[in-house]
Amino acid sequence: LRPRSPAVEHRRHVQPDRFQRRTANASHEPIGEIHTPFERPDGMPIQPASEESTQGTVVVNPAYEAGLADLDGFSHCILIYQFHAGDDAYSLRPTPFLDDTERGLFATRAPNRPNGIGLSIVGVESVEGRELTVSGIDVIDGTPLLDIKPFVPQFDAPTDSTPTIALALQPI
C-alpha cells in the first residue's frame, strides 16, 4: 500500500460526515418484480450456479420498459433486489452454507444482512415488452427488483479472484 498524502488523509476523515448526511434518508424504490417458481426458501437453489435451468420472469414497471432495450444482446445480467421474505434479524458471525465455521457476515453470501439487498447473475433468455425471461434464478416469487445491470465478463469476473478454502473444496 502506498502512503496517503496529507490531503487524501484529510478527505478520508471528512468524508464519513458528508456521507452520513447524504445517505441519512436513503431509500430505494423497486423498479419491478421478480417472478419465480419458488414460494418459500425451502427447496430454492442456494445460488444461481447450482440450478441453471430454473426460469423466472422479471417484470419492470411501465416507466422502465424502455430501459430493457438492448439487454437481449447480453448472455447474462445482474439482478439487484430487496430480500423481502425473511425477518430483519442478522448475525455478524453466521455459519455459511457448505461451511462449519462461523465467518464474518461480509465474507459470506448469507441472505440476512443489514440492508437486505441481494444480487444474482442470471442468464438472459428473452426480452419482450416489460418482461425479461431469465434462467438460473434463485429468488422467491414476488421479490422486489431494485436494478438490472448487464454482466460483462471482462469487468465483472476477475481472473485472479479466490474464494474461501471451504467453498473452493466443495462442488456447487
Number of strands: 6
Pattern of helices and strands: HEEEEEEHH
Which term fits the overall shape? Answer: globular
Mean pLDDT: 80
**Low-pLDDT sequence parts:** 1-15
Please tell me how large the radius of gyration is: 19 Å
Tell me the strand order in the biggest sheet.
1-2-5-4-3-6
**Largest sheet data:** 6 strands, antiparallel, barrel
Q: What's the helical proportion of residues?
A: 10-25%
Question: How many helices?
Answer: 3
Structural class by helix and strand composition: alpha+beta
Query: Which percent band covers the strand fraction?
Result: 15-25%
The end-to-end distance, rounded to whole angstroms, is: 35 Å
Structure description:
- With 172 residues, the chain is an alpha+beta fold.
- It is built from 3 helices and 6 strands, in the order H-E-E-E-E-E-E-H-H.
- The protein has a 6-stranded antiparallel β-barrel with strand order 1-2-5-4-3-6.
- Strand 4 (117-128) and strand 5 form a beta hairpin.
- The protein is globular, with a radius of gyration of 19 Å.
- It starts with 5 loop residues before the first helix and ends with a helix.
- Mean pLDDT is 80; it is low at 1-15.
Summarize the structure.
By secondary structure, the chain is an alpha+beta fold.
How are the elements arranged and paired?
Blueprint: H1 6-23, E1 32-35, E2 55-60, E3 76-82, E4 117-128, E5 131-135, E6 143-150, H2 153-156, H3 165-169
Antiparallel strand pairs: 1-2, 1-6, 2-5, 3-4, 3-6, 4-5
Attribute tags:
172 residues; alpha+beta; disordered N terminus; 3 helices; six-stranded antiparallel barrel; 6 strands; 24% strand; globular
